[in-house]
Fold this protein.
Amino acid sequence: MASVRMKVDGVVYEDEVPARRLLVHHLRDGLGRVGTPVGCDTSNCGSCTLLIDGDSVKSCSVLAVQADGTDITTIQGLANGEWHPVQKAFQEHHGLQCGYCTPGMILATVDLLKRNPSPTEDEVRHGLEGNLCRCTGYQNIVKAVLSAASEMRGEGAHKGSFQDAPEQQEVSA
Ligand code: FES
Ligand code: FES
């Protein structure tokens, strides 16, 4: 067992955890923070993505002990009194269907827009390639990300159509 101390969505937790426990399991099973889903056993799907010290990380690829001393934001802590602009954009542009990928998509998007506040459509698709969605065909997700970027730059929500692909075209991220 090892001692870990981490802040999760603004709350500090101190626990003893098995040295080999994954961070996502510690959050879900140890702390009851079940807003972070597990979609695979292979670190491929991205559904478990959260922010560690502001950077997006797949929490199934990190041991809980490696997160000792960090500040973690899950989807449950992203809204701060009101929806984060990325959450709003996903809602307004229907960037989800079943919603299983959505926490990871949103948190990966927050990190993407922090690094690149004015992404092109291609850069959005490339930036989210580690997050898989089996429902939406990605079109509305990309639309939501471009809209959130525009909103966060203070330009209002993105209204235009894609530059690189017709709206109806089915394109993988
Ligand atoms: S659960 Fe699929 S990448 Fe973490
Ligand atoms: S909305 Fe169902 S997996 Fe993305």
Q: What stands out?
A: Helices lie at 23-30, 75-78, 85-92, 102-115, 121-127, 139-152.
